[in-house]
Design goal:
The complex is a heterodimer. By secondary structure, chain A is an all-alpha fold. Chain A has 13 helices and 2 strands. In chain A, helix 12 (271-298) crosses helix 13 (300-306). Chain A is globular and about 80 Å long. The two termini of chain A are 29 Å apart. Chain B is mostly helical. In chain B, 74% of the residues lie in helices and 0% in strands. The chains are: A mainly alpha, B mainly alpha. Chains A and B meet through helix 6, helix 7, helix 10 and helix 12 of A and helix 1, helix 6, helix 7, helix 8 and helix 10 of B.
Chain lengths: 307, 312
């Protein structure tokens, strides 16, 4: 912990002797909670797929062959290759495309969470610390961002700027930073009257230093909770953009794009729509289960409200 | 109370002004609106003529002024509800959007209805019978509601109820029963949120002293819950219902596309595909206005329901 630095040796020693750290306790509790463990498993699986898809993908996700198009799950071709989840319109292997498709979902999800978290936390610190007019201006901007129909604005921006990873992340972050701002602002309002902050200020601490050293660590755990809750939503949002044709353009496999292709074959080839959706749902479910658990561990106040 | 309402209205007006600013800046984001609006094969002369006609050759503050207050008699400016003509349909953009509002509103109201019918009883039962099978079942349902993407659920519902069972139409708007599948798909997320809220608020209220007092007076448990606890738990739930309705009005875009439901969301997706940005601007502005309006109404209702809210 950052705050341990600079403590007198005997307090530091006491800290060493106080038994398992928070992290160890958290991990111990994780083993006692099967849903959270399942969530971690789903998310870690998706992350591993996204990092090294070629280790898992049985076929080339882009290899087309019209001879084997729209084959059902378990299809074996003449060469003896098995297509466990079937093939799509162009004869591409569904399983391989799902494994490679995890990349776009997770890259966009994590990038959007980091970008919106960075902007949102900064704005929240500023609004909460200065208060008054600065807070009023930031709060009205937050209200406006929340009032705009998010998906409509985002797909318009993507259509205008062009569908690329950066623009998709930008379009998502333009709205979601507000969530962090609201949380951080409220907490900073309470924190800035504490002895810790008034003491730091009277000791001659600069504003930036107070924000980064005294305020940020204290709001961080709530932000981690918000980030986890929103990671799942970002992944759903990315897939709906791809579904609408506003995502990363083909031939890059995306789960949303696969669902859009499957939409034309609902009556004949259900596997095109079922499996990418299951992958998407399990990933989001994993994130949400992990988020529930993190919230209980990191934010006992929220636990009291919800449990 | 009056000061509280006036302040709420003023804040809403500022928010709406900011929304209009964002809607104006939307087209300016590329730096060259003609680049977005004109076909790729347009000649330099055509682009120049187009820029002159639309006023894109003028400084940005002049454009903004004209955007708000109008160019001439044909275009009255957005402050009077005129977002210009749709390039594609050659009719006023705002009219096109307003035509699609009823379909979106019907879908949002039915989705919310689905949500309430499931969420309120499930939320109450899981709070009353905490840690029972019904509580566990509800929490699984609520977790699923927050994890399943609504458009994928829509596709799955089509496969099950339209393709396999043949009970309900895959898409369309003409029959009354065609609203069922889209409402289920769109309402799932709201169901999960309202259910969670209902459960946690009721649990919180039931832990308070006055509930114990009522119990110790010998009042039947059903009456304690029905008359004392539920009444006090209703206010936060009403708030979240209002928020979810506001969210549903603009949040059903992808479900509308899946079910070919002729609402505002589908119109916007179609318009983006043909670069018809006047319609997109009009839709974004109108839906924002409706969202702000619903929120303001909820705020006022909330203050009226709960006298403890300070008006300062």
């Amino acid at each position: 912990m950052a705050t341990d630095a600079g403590l007198s040796p005997h307090i530091a020693q006491e800290l060493d002797e106080r038994g398992p750290t928070e992290l160890q306790l958290a991990l111990r509790e994780l083993l006692k909670r099967p849903p959270a463990l399942f969530g971690v498993f789903c998310l870690v699986m998706a992350i591993i797929w996204a990092i090294v898809p070629y280790l898992f993908s049985p076929h080339d996700p882009l290899a087309q062959d019209l001879v084997r198009h729209l084959k059902p799950p378990g299809f074996v071709d003449e060469a003896g290759n098995t297509y466990w989840l079937g093939t799509d319109r162009l004869g591409r292997d569904i399983l391989s495309r799902i494994i490679w498709g995890s990349r776009v979902s997770l890259i966009v999800g994590f990038a959007a969470v980091f970008m919106s978290g960075f902007i949102g936390i900064a704005m929240g610190l500023i609004a909460g610390y200065y208060g008054g007019k600065v807070d009023a201006v930031i709060s009205r901007i937050v209200d406006a961002a929340l009032a705009i129909p998010f998906v409509l604005l985002a797909i318009s921006i993507i259509a205008i700027l062009g569908a690329s990873l950066q623009n998709i992340v930008l379009a998502i972050a333009l709205r979601t930073w507000t969530v962090y701002t609201r949380v951080v602002r409220g907490e900073v309002f309470a924190l800035k009257e504490t002895d810790m902050v008034t003491g730091a200020r009277s000791a001659g601490c600069g504003t930036l230093r107070i924000m980064i050293i005294y305020l940020l660590p204290n709001v961080f755990s709530s932000c981690i909770v918000v980030a986890t809750i929103y990671l799942g939503r970002m992944i759903i949002i990315e897939s709906s953009f791809s579904f609408l044709g506003m995502g990363v353009p083909p031939p890059t496999p995306t789960w949303g794009g696969m669902l859009a292709e499957g939409r034309g074959f609902l009556d004949t080839a259900w596997w095109l729509t079922l499996f990418p959706g299951v992958a998407l749902t399990l990933t989001v479910l994993g994130v949400n289960l992990l988020g529930d658990w993190l919230r209980d561990v990191l934010d006992p106040r929220m636990k009291r409200l919800d449990d | 109370m009056r000061a509280y309402i006036i302040r709420g209205v003023l804040q809403s007006l500022i928010v709406l002004w900011l929304v209009l600013l964002i809607v104006f800046l939307m087209l300016q984001m590329t730096g060259d609106p003609a680049d977005v609006l004109m076909p790729d094969e347009a000649t330099v002369e055509e682009v120049a003529a187009f820029n002159k006609e639309m006023g894109f050759d003028q400084p940005i503050y002049v454009q903004y002024f004209k955007f708000l207050f109008g160019h001439d008699d044909k275009n009255l400016g957005v402050l009077r509800g005129d977002f210009g003509e749709s390039f594609y349909h050659n009719v006023p953009a705002m009219g096109l959007v307003i035509e699609r509002i009823p379909a979106t509103a019907i879908l949002a109201v039915f989705a919310l209805f689905v949500g309430l019918v499931i969420a309120i009883p499930a939320g109450i039962l899981s709070a009353v019978f905490r840690k029972s099978w019904i509580d566990h079942f509800s929490s699984v349902l609520s977790m699923a509601g927050q994890s399943i993407p609504n458009f994928w659920l829509g596709l799955m519902l089509i496969i099950l109820f339209s393709e396999i069972l043949g009970w309900l139409p895959t898409s369309g708007y003409r029959e009354a029963k065609s609203v069922i599948l889209p409402a289920l798909a769109a309402g799932l997320y709201a169901t999960a949120r309202i259910m969670r809220m209902m459960r946690s608020t009721l649990l919180e209220v039931m832990a308070q002293d006055f509930v114990n007092t009522a119990r110790s007076k010998g009042i039947a448990e059903a009456v304690v819950i029905g008359r004392h606890a539920l009444k006090n738990a209703s206010i936060p739930v009403v708030t979240i219902i209002g928020l979810e309705l506001g969210g549903l009005l603009s949040g059903t875009v992808v479900v509308e596309v899946v079910f070919a439901w002729p609402g505002v969301g589908w119109l916007v997706v179609e318009s983006i595909n043909v670069n018809d940005y006047a319609v997109v601007q009009a839709a974004v502005a109108l839906l924002s206005f409706m969202f702000v309006g619903v929120n303001l109404a909820v705020d006022i209702l909330y203050a009226w329901l709960d006298p403890r809210i300070s008006y300062s």
